[in-house]
Amino acid sequence: AAFRMGFDLATYKTVRSRAWGCNPFPNVLAVHPKSADGSLTPGSAELDEGVLADTDYEQPISISNSFGVPSQSPDVWQPDMRAAIAAAGLGQVLVPSFQGSRVEGMSEEEYIADHATTARLIKETGAKLMVMNTSCPNEGHNRLLCHNPLLVGRITEAVKNEIGDIPLMVKLAYIPSDDDLELMVRSTVGHGTVQGFSTINTISAKLVDADGNQALPGAGRDRSGVCGNAIRGAGLDMVARLAAIREKLGLDFKINGVGGVVSPADYQAYRNAGADSVMSATGAMWDAELARKIKSSIK
Ligand SMILES: Cc1cc2nc3c(=O)[nH]c(=O)nc-3n(C[C@H](O)[C@H](O)[C@H](O)COP(=O)(O)O)c2cc1C
Fold it and tell me: Would residue 1 count as lying in a domain?
């Protein structure tokens, strides 16, 4: 459906080496930051003090994203992924996404191997490229793999050994420090294991209802990732800094900009910041015509 609606790069939502359950309903709530333009700034006090979340879905849209990266088992997602790859039209490509699953008692080596296994399962579907997700709390509650660039480097080496010439991208969350970001680039692209980055994922915030109580039900869900309009500034900042590092190091890799793209102007802003390609999740959920609107704006 995404291809038919003109989204030429369609991500196949992150899969795992095994079936993985979803967080309880609700997963999506409307999120209302305090600032006049509805933006959330990484590192700001508001993220820890609480941001209002409810069912009043205003435009431009910002939402919570609290799914827990569920996955079907490979015997379900592999044939489905094959069908999705075959659905791509001229100039379109399916972008499979995967991540490792850290389970109780797993050693670091086993965790690394789980990534390589999942990448091999994707390769078996005939994928032309793939993206490894390091931007969800796969390291435990609120802990992201992309905050450990050296481990990402080791994992991408194992993955690359498995997938050979198939281009590998890494999905990154917002990384505030330029030094950490540069280390990420050096430990991956610098070793020839990674050909691009996709960024950003959601920004973590404490979500509260109108009475100041936890908005999403259940333990460990006091915070959730926020996506949509609120995070565009952070996404543009991350893309611009990544592009500057690319220039500085003279390395060749692609940047896919994502985060808060809800209009043609947002697409252009990402391209101006240095993105080679642009994606939208929340914006596309709320407006299935978004790709068509963007394309007609650049003709
Ligand atoms: C419903 C939904 C599901 C998502 N699932 C994934 C996922 O499985 N893997 C991933 O890397 N990002 C996932 N994301 C994050 C998006 O890829 C994107 O990085 C983020 O939402 C920011 O873009 P946006 O502001 O356009 O939504 C998901 C986002 C939404 C809205």
Answer: no
Average pLDDT over residues 174-199: 98
**Is 136 marked active-site?**
yes
pLDDT at 287: 98
141: CATH: 3.20.20.70
The residue-averaged pLDDT of 90-101 equals: 97
159 assigned to some structural domain: yes
* Residue with CA at minimum distance from ligand 1 atom 18: 201
Calculate how far, in angstroms, residue 226's C-alpha sits from the geometric centre of ligand 1: 9
**What is the residue range of 161's domain?**
9-298
Distances (CA, A) of 142 to 4, 30, 177, 229: 36, 21, 18, 22
Per the listing, tokens 């540069």 go with: 182
**Averaged pLDDT for residues 39-61:** 97
**Chain mean pLDDT for the chain:** 96
> Does 58 map to a domain?
yes
**Ligand 1 atom 23, closest CA:** 259
The Å distance, Cα 255 to ligand 1 centre, comes to: 16
Q: Is residue 2 one of the residues assigned to a domain? A: no
**262-288 pLDDT, tens digit each:** 999 999 999 999 999 999 999 999 999
Task: Yes or no: say if 188 and 159 are a contact pair by the CB < 8 Å rule.
Answer: no
Which of 22, 136, 146, 227 is an active site residue? Answer: 136
- Total domains present in the chain: 1
Contacts of 294 (CB under 8 A, 6+ apart): 264, 267, 278
| 67 CA: nearest ligand 1 atom | 3
CA 201 to ligand 1 centroid distance, Å: 6
